[in-house]
Amino acid sequence: MATTAQHPDPLACSSPRAVLIDALAYIGDNPNSTAPENFTSDMKHIQVSICTEYPPAPSRLFVHCPNLGTDVFFENPHIICTADGFLLLRIQICGPAVTYPRDKGDYFIYRPGCPSLQLIPKPPLFHDDQVGLLPRGELFTIAALSLSIEGFTLHLFHSEFGVWTVFNKVPVVTVERQFPFKLPRNAVRLNEHMTTTVITLGGKNGTMGWVDLWSGILLCDVLTVSPTLRDVPLPLPQSFVKRGKQIDGCPKPLRGIAVVQGCIKLVKLDIYGEMLPMHDPETGHINFRIDDWELIQYTRSSAEAEVSCEDWKL
């Protein structure tokens, strides 16, 4: 359920040039800031603001309904993604009596620098992990890539047009990915694509990447007339290559990816140990013994077109 948070007074001095945003958004008023206002799709009044802190302390985002109580929030607001001063938010307001809302709420673009808050028209249904944001000066594009039995579907919202555009059955134009050996049954997950995060590379064609942190990146030029997908495999997990460990579960605790100064950087954590027979007596969770761990960073140019998992550089 939704929770509220107390927040400190904003800094009396000037704001920092860059901040770290807390991944969690909070419900509450931040009266000492300039909070842009808008209305939800069902005309509920909301305000959004950021309580700014100097890094490494996180700056926190607050959402407030001036004329309503905190119980109107079905859950805490979600910060879907951020890019160059743009924040894509999902806010779900439906009242305390609703146990299962009809949709995922409203999407807003929040710009704390201006400040401004823009309601986005109701989009098609997709998962939060499938959505990315492409800033274009004062304009922006929201892009989501979903997968069904019919193939990939690309949903685009260009701010200058104000409507969603849908491309069905978007083709993957690169050759089928090649692995250095035949994949055993415990690694078939590498032949699937389940998006875990979205990266923005930019450029004149507006390149974005839908990343499955286990298997690879699907690159797409979202500003072109007929978007297509290009597959870029990720390096294989060392725990699988060296010890044949099964590849499954969520990769986010073990892998992360970002675009830094024109390069794609992948950081992965390999943990060596074993699962113990007894559960943790305090938490009830599965117990592990950690014998060793290894942190590895791979890099490749965002402009490279090769599709081999061996093209990444340590």
What labels would you give this structure?
4-stranded mixed β-sheet; mainly beta; DUF1618 domain-containing protein; single chain; 314 residues; 1 helix; DUF1618; 4-stranded antiparallel β-sheet
Describe the structure.
2% of the residues lie in helices and 45% in strands. With 314 residues, the chain is an all-beta fold. The longest helix is centred in the last third of the chain and has 6 residues, at 238-243. The protein has one helix at residues 238-243; strands at 20-27, 37-39, 45-51, 58-64, 78-83, 86-91, 106-111, 116-120, 131-136, 139-148, 151-158, 164-170, 197-202, 207-212, 216-221, 229-233, 255-260, 263-279, 286-301. It starts with 19 loop residues before the first strand and ends in a 13-residue tail after the last strand. The chain is globular and about 60 Å long. It has a domain at 1-122. Pfam families: DUF1618.
Describe the SSE topology.
Layout: E1 20-27, E2 37-39, E3 45-51, E4 58-64, E5 78-83, E6 86-91, E7 106-111, E8 116-120, E9 131-136, E10 139-148, E11 151-158, E12 164-170, E13 197-202, E14 207-212, E15 216-221, E16 229-233, H1 238-243, E17 255-260, E18 263-279, E19 286-301
Parallel strand pairs: 1-4
Antiparallel strand pairs: 2-3, 3-4, 5-6, 6-7, 7-8, 9-10, 10-11, 11-12, 13-14, 14-15, 15-16, 17-18, 18-19
